[in-house]
Structure formats: C-alpha cells, structure tokens
Amino acid sequence: MGHLQRTLLFTPTRRMHMSKDDPIHTCAGAMHIARALHSAMRLPNGDVLVAGGITNGGLATDSVERFSLDQREWKQQPPKQKAAFSQLTVILDDGSFLLVGGSQTGEASDHVERFDTIRSCWTTLCSLQVARFSHTATSLWGGTNKVLVIGGNHLKGDTGKVLDIVELYDVASDEWHQLGERSQARMTHSATLLDSGKVLIIGGYAPDQALAHCELFDPQTGRFEPTTPLPAPRMQHTATLLNNGQVMVAGGTCMPFGESALESFLYDPLADTWRSGPPMQRGHQGHTATLLPDGRLLLAGHTRLPYRPSTELYDPRKDAWVLGSELNEPRFSHSATLLPGDQGVLLCAGQLLTPDTAYTRSCEHCCGPLAQPAEPAQGTGSMPSGPLENLPANRQFHGLDALSAALAAPQQ
Prior knowledge:
single chain; mainly beta; Neuraminidase; 4-stranded antiparallel β-sheet; 1 helix; about 0% helix
C-alpha cells in the first residue's frame, strides 16, 4: 500500500447527522516522512513539533518536522540526536521536552535527549541506568524538577525482562537515580499524575498476564502505596485525569494479544474506589486520549476493520460515550496534540490497519463539536483488536509489533 501524499484538515459540521456528501475535508499541507510511534510536542506559539518514530522498512528515524499553525504546512527541521521510536515525552518546568528510552534497533534503549523550545536545539543527556521501552515517564509537580520512570521491558536479543526498577531523573544535576523502593514489575501500563501530586500506576503486563494491580507513588516520601485494584485486568489502555479529579481508563485489552475491551473504568482518588464506566461504542488499542477544553475526552485510533475508523467522546456530565466523526484513515500508534484555544486536536501520522506493515504521513485536524449521535453499545463485551492477533511465526516485528515481540519473548 502506498503512503498518502497529503495532510487533511478534518472539520466536523454542526449537523447531528453526517453523510458521505458532507464537505468535511480540505487539504492542509503534507508531512515529509511517514512514521509511527513518534514524539509530538506543542510549542509555545502553538506550532507542533514531531520527532523520531519508526518509518518504512521498520527503521527508526531521527527526522524532525514542524507544523505551522498559521501557514498550515509542515517544514523539515534539524534532526534529533539519535534515531528512535517509542520514546516517552514529558514537558519540564522550563517548557523544554525530555525524550526518554524507547528503541533504536528493536531492542530497548537507554538514550535520553532534551529539546530546548527557546533555542530550538537538541541535547543528549545522561542515559537511563536501565534501557527500557513500553515504560512510563511522569514529570512530577511541586517544583521538584524531577521525572519518574516506571517499568517497561528490557528487551535484548531474543530475551525480554519486565522491569520493577524505578528511576528518578534530577533535571538540575542531569543524573538518574534508582529508587530503593521498587514497584510491581509491569509494562504497557499507565501512570497518571493526580491533583494531589501523587502518581497513579494502573494495570499493564507482567509475564504471561495482564494486571489489575494499581499503586500510588508519593513524591514526598519516595515510596509506593497500595491502592484499590482495577475491577478487571487491563493493559495497553489510556488513563486520563478528568477535570473533576477522577481518572478515566479506556481502551486496551484484558490479556496479551486479546480483544479490545469495551468496558471503561473510573477511579475516584478521594474515596480510593473504582466503578465501571459506561461501555464504549468501539474497541481501541494503540489509540490516543485527549482531554478537550470543554471537559470531554476524545479517543482516536485503532478500531479494527471492517468497523468504521470513528473517534469516540466521553462526556463526564452525561457519563456517556458517543461516537464521534470518522477519521480519514484507521490509524494507530499516531500522536494527538491539543492545539491552543478552541483550535482542536492535530492527529499525526501512525500505522495503518493493513495486512502488511504500512505507515502514513497524513494528518487530521479535528475541530468543532466532534460528536454525532450513536446507538448505545450493547453489554460490556469486546471487539477484535487488530494487528496483535495471530501473528505469523516468521513475521518480522515492526513498530507496535516490537511490543508483540516483547510480549512473546521468553522472560528472564
């Protein structure tokens, strides 16, 4: 399948029903390189910087491109220090961005670099003590100027190791320190910074199983605290802090190589309780979750064909999911960047749901009301998850498939 040659501006109308004839797409430039599992950063002026990722042939790239919000076009920028994909990106107190770990060759990486938004330059920093990908990285609050890295997989050669090693980065000294306190070994989990300043670690994968286990990290004590487990195991999900202080867990799967779960969960930090949220309309993996200025949550990506590649929105006021407008492509492992003001969300690149590995350089600008009515989902079942199922034994692992390789590899 050839790679698309244009970027599309996606503007849903205010009509409650949309037909194929609705004029909802206009051209808005083109990215230069197809990619997935990249980093995307919103700059102070509202432009979006996309860096790294995996591209044609399963190769990591050091390519950097910048989307001009005013001119609505992509421009190539000086490359980053090293080609990499699946790097975790966090914003620091000074507005710069830290890119941590990931992979350069299909194995776990210890590489760390920083993008200075004022000078527009990249700098290589002190390496992680333990190489990892499918980890989490969280910038802590309270003026600590520290970044917490939890879990991941130390994939090397044909052997993987799910990590319980926790590292803390001191931005001022450019040093990584391993914490004596260790967490539950996990990968493909989530870590959500709560209003209290604590970090909620949810689910993920431990050898041979998805986890319901959750824990809290307290930056004040440097220790992990037990907390109420999920009602059911979950991995490859998203966990988003809503404006009401609760955390929405959406998408992902209940088992390795499993189907995408439709059931969502809500966590109340004040009561330390979980409850089942409303069922979603579609299953999602490799998706993005973006909190909109009006408090709704936008999910986009990875609903398996032949299902339409719809977005989906959660409205906390109604406690309900509704289908949103359709994407131009059934993408996953893309990025979603909230633009300033009411200018919407920019979805960039990603991997396509095709029999053979294919990446796209198309992008979509989602703005407007976004939602359209949909019938309620029946029950809390699941839908097929897509490319992680039934992988051929002789298949070469690319992109998100590197995660599949880690899940399938013998664990130390």
